[in-house]
Amino acid sequence: MAGFRIGRGRDNNRTPQQQPQQAPPPPYGQSYGQQQYGGGPVAPTHPQQQWQQGRQGHPGRHPGQQQAPHGEPEYFGDPYAQQGPGGAYPAGDPYANNPGHTQAFSVGEDPYGNGSTYRAGTAPAAPAGPRLHWKDLLSGIVLRPGPTFLQMRDYPVWAPALIVTFLYGLLAIFGFDQTREEAINAPFTTALVSVLLTGMAFVVGGLILGAVTHTLARQLGGDGAWQPTVGLSMLIMSLTDAPRLVVALFLGGENSLVQVVGWVTWLAAGALFTSMVSKSHDLPWPKALGASAIQLIALLSIIKLGTI
User: Fold this and answer.
1) What is the DSSP letter of 61?
2) Measured distance CA(191)–CA(196) in Å, rounded
3) Which residue among 17, 168, 188, 293 sits deepest, i.e. has the most Cβ atoms within 10 Å of its Cβ?
């Protein structure tokens, strides 16, 4: 019995020899020999322990994701992973932009911009300049049409457009030989009514033709407002035909000089309409000319062909 006790005491006092145990196989992409600069070999860890370390010790990383050793490609880990408030992961897919995963975007979403990128065909955020006085507006249409149309593309011009078109209509009746003779030989009341009705008819016709031009411009991809387009088109119609009308008051509508002036001013009206629609609707000049085609044909058939 004593020997048995001595034997057990000798066994208890002796340090048991540690036998090497076979470690579980390392995760894919790692080995026991991987070392970090300035450290020893990386101890193998069980996948469950890796997940716990990712949740507790590294709140800024996704579960199961480890810090890549220095000098390794960053697809072994994301050392710059962002951490949400309170240690939580950002909202969305926690595996987005990781190996084997992609991040989904909505249709039309720009993940690299803030939405303020310039797109062709869009109107500027602010007007190109302050509203012009009516004197500067009328002179600008004739002398500097491009900058004037660009500056007034966001401002309605109803007062100058209605007044100028109405005055033009009052005198337009005297630009035709037949109507001028009828107005001169008629009683004053009848002539006055005819003149006023003609002025109102030109205003209504200018509104309709301007609306048609605006509608065609929008159909062709324009983005301008309808009030500036209609108002400017009425001003162009009246101002470009004013030289022909002034010469016709003295020489008559059948005079050859009046005919030449009429064709020249009609071509000038086409150029001004094209410039106005191009600046107001941000369209190339072929589309701007196409949007103005109906109004130009109407002016040619109603006004020019009646005297030429």
Assistant:
1) S
2) 9
3) 168
Could you tell me if 160 and 127 are in contact, meaning their C-beta atoms sit under 8 angstroms apart?
no
Q: How many CA atoms lie within 13 A of 250 on its CB side?
A: 5
Q: Closest Cα partner for 153 from 288, 243, 270?
A: 288
- Contact present, 206 and 284 (Cβ < 8 Å): no
Sole residue written with tokens 């001003």: 235
Per the listing, tokens 């101002």 go with: 239
- 3-class DSSP state for residue 234? helix
Q: What does residue 253 show for φ and ψ, rounded to 5 degrees? A: -70, -20
- The 8-class DSSP code of residue 98 comes to S
Round to whole Å and give the CA distance between 224 and 284. 13
pLDDT per residue as tens digits for the range 220-259: 999 999 999 999 999 999 999 999 999 988 888 778 888 8
* Helix, strand, coil percent values for the chain (each to nearest 5): 55, 0, 40
Which of 194, 145, 138, 147 has the alpha carbon at shortest distance from 171? Answer: 194
DSSP letter (8 states) at residue 44: P
pLDDT tens sequence across 19-68? 555 555 555 545 444 444 444 455 555 555 554 554 444 444 444 445 54
Give the integer Cα–Cα distance in Å for 228 and 156: 5
| 41 phi, psi to nearest 5 deg | -65, 150
